[in-house]
Input
Amino acid sequence: MRFLIAATTLFCGLVMSYGQTICIDPGHPSENGGTTGKKITETRANWEVAVRLRDILKSKGVKVVMTKQSEKEKVVNKRRAEIANECKADLMIRLHCDANDGRGFAVYYPTVKGTSQGVTGPKDEVLKSTEPIAKSFYESLVNALNGTMKANGLMSDLKTAVGSKQGALTGSIFSEVPVVLVEMVNLKDAEDEAFIRSKKGQQTIAEAMAKACLDALKKQN
Ligand SMILES: [Zn+2]
Output
């Protein structure tokens, strides 16, 4: 009993020290099934890293809400944003893997409003609050990965295929909280794929993103 009280006090103490909520959004299946490498699907890579990121953040006393509860659960992008809004997340972090000719990771965030399903967003205050968080997040992520992965930059949602048509990604348009999307690796690149398939690689990027989340939120307080 004494142990339980001590453990509870410790846990609450940690929670109060951050008092923050992070919504982790493991990409796909949503409007589409995601891309695939030769040996791992994007959905699986996103999910496996998300679970590690969740566990790391929870161990640091952060409240974590996931937008889906199992790897294959289908949740459309609008609903993913609503889940982040409902828990009033301090940050929504969306995990994806790219499939083009390059290598490495990139971070995207909404810089202007877009329109999807007749809705225009995100609101000005979300654009304003996301910008410094996205900049800090990217900078910390680059530092934490320390050259392990090639850094391709912090970019506007407009640089994505969907964002270039809509003005912003669907998950950004419906978000009422700061939101960033990480393209963690390029699954068409064999080394990138091997990295994200390995437990070590998954843990490395999850730890780096956890640090980047906490650094970004610390600066807001
Ligand atoms: Zn994706």
Remarks:
- The beta strands are 21-26, 63-66, 91-98, 105-109, 114-116, 119-121, 151-156, 179-186.
- The chain has one domain: 21-220.
